[in-house]
Amino acid sequence: MTTTAIPAEARRAPAAAPKRRPRREREGAAWVFLSPWVLGAIVLTLLPMAVSLYLSFTDYDLFSPPKWVGLRNYVQMFTEDPRYWRSVATTLTYVAVAVPLQLALALVVALALKGMKHGKGFYRSAFYAPSLLGASMSVALVWRAIFNDGGTVDNLLGTGGWVNKPGWALLAMALLTVWQFGAPMVIFLAGLQQIPAELYEAAAVDGAGKWRQFLSVTVPMLSPVLFFNLVLQTIQAFQVFTPAFAVSAGKGGPADSTLVYTMYLYDRGFVASHMGYASAMAWVLLLVIGVVTAVLFRTSRSWVFYASEGDR
User: Fold this and answer.
1) What CATH number matches the domain at 83-309, 3.40.50.720, 3.10.560.10, 3.30.540.10, 1.10.3720.10?
2) Which segments constitute the ABC transmembrane type-1 domain (predicted)?
């Protein structure tokens, strides 16, 4: 009887499966990689917020120790400071003008780019460029020169400098924000490219024209992207500072027509050295932005359409 030799490799015992590291050890490694972010969030965000909240209940001028005054800053803000309410009204007007105009222009340009067959990349980059440059002080100063007495707008229209007229200065500032429509435009363009072409074909078969297709197909399918842009641009509009500072030369004029909320906060905190009062203003702004965002999310249930959820 013949015996078949078994290879040495086959006679070896199977290799043991690698042991998994204990869960606690794996969590420790995760915290090591997360530690730079956690440290930055604590030192650069949470700690300054806590200090700001404390200062909002104090009288602090940046040079002497803060003195606890309780709710005095908030009471003075709401009942004794007319410029505060002017800054609130100016900010609300700015948000109501700049955000809709910016989103409308971004959507129109995105629709135009979607239909282009050649040069789409070039025009997309060209229209996006102002979003990268517009937040800089240098561009804001150029914008002020364009709308100043003897500037480009004055020479073309003969209306005088907008930045020197109380009724026009805020509009000039809002147009600077509208000009920076590149970021929402790119988001709109991405959303438009995700809409199935079959929906437009079906609408055309049913006899829908371009305008009806836009209202019945584009707007509902694009509503999540529209809501996303609306929330982001609204939050940014409430915090506008650089255009107002440049257009008004840091004074909020003429006649407080460009005195937006952050400009007045800057004036109280760093010009008048009322840092406690400015901290109180900052916390009120945070709460207002939170409330406005919550309202937008609440109302979105009635007009934002998600295809995965079906008809509402």
Assistant:
1) 1.10.3720.10
2) 88-296
